[in-house]
Amino acid sequence: MTDIPFDTHEFVETLREAGKDALSKAAFATKADIERLTSNIDQLRSITRADIEQLRSATKANIDRLRSEMRLEMREMEHRLTIRMGAMFITTIALLTALDKLL
Predict the structure, then answer these.
(1) Which pLDDT tens digit goes with each residue over 34-53?
(2) Counted domains in the chain
(3) Taking the mean position of all CA atoms in its chain, how far away is CA 88?
(4) Which letter does DSSP use for residue 28 in this model?
(5) Is residue 11 part of a domain?
(6) Which candidate, 23, 35, 62, 85, has a CA 20 to 30 Å from the CA of 8?
(7) Does residue 3 lie in a domain region?
(8) Does residue 58 register a pLDDT over 70?
């Protein structure tokens, strides 16, 4: 088997040069970029907190409103049931009285 001559030093230099071009073209984050991003994150965080607080308040108001509506409906149902039970009681007494007179 024959060996193919290969200049490793030349290949390393070629890779190094290619790396320098890639390195010089690369965009690295500067401190100003990082500070700007940090500022943006802080702004978004405060906006998100405000939104969450607003949603909490709206949800609490909705729950309170629903609770009041439910209590009102329960009172109305209680009154209707009381009237029905009274009517059933009167009907029962009337039937028993009628049966007593017939028998």
Answers:
(1) 899 999 999 999 999 999 99
(2) 1
(3) 50
(4) -
(5) no
(6) 23
(7) no
(8) yes
Give CA–CA dist 1/5, Å, rounded: 13
The whole-angstrom distance between residue 17's C-alpha and the CA centroid of its chain comes to 52
pLDDT confidence tier of residue 17, bands split at 50, 70 and 90: confident
Residue 78, both tokens: 């209680």
Instruction: Dig out the tokens for 90 from the structure.
Output: 């009167």
H helices present in the chain, as ranges = 8-25, 31-102
Q: How far apart are CA 8 and CA 39, in angstroms?
A: 49
Q: Which of 19-23, 37-41, 48-52, 66-70 has the lowest mean pLDDT?
A: 19-23
pLDDT value at position 26? 62
Cα-Cα end-to-end distance for the chain: 129
How far is 101 from 86, CA to CA, in rounded Å?
23
**Is residue 64 assigned to a domain?**
yes
26 dihedral zone (left: phi>0; alpha: psi -120 to 50; beta): beta
Q: pTM for the whole thing?
A: 0.52
Tokens of 44: 């978004």
- On whether residue 87 sits in a domain, the answer given is yes
